[in-house]
Amino acid sequence: MSSGGRTNIDRVASHLKEVLAEGREGDVFEMVVGLLAQMDV
Questions:
Q1: Taking the domains of the chain in order of start, what are their residue ranges?
Q2: Sign of the alpha-carbon torsion through 27, 28, 31, 36
Q3: Across residues 15-25, what is the average pLDDT?
């Protein structure tokens, strides 16, 4: 994984906190699935 991915992870993490604070767990699930798809797991 390239070092350039770190900022993306930080951005996702901060967004995750915002979403959780608003109680939108469904959005979190969709975002995690999308993130895994991008990572070519």
A1: 5-38
A2: negative
A3: 78
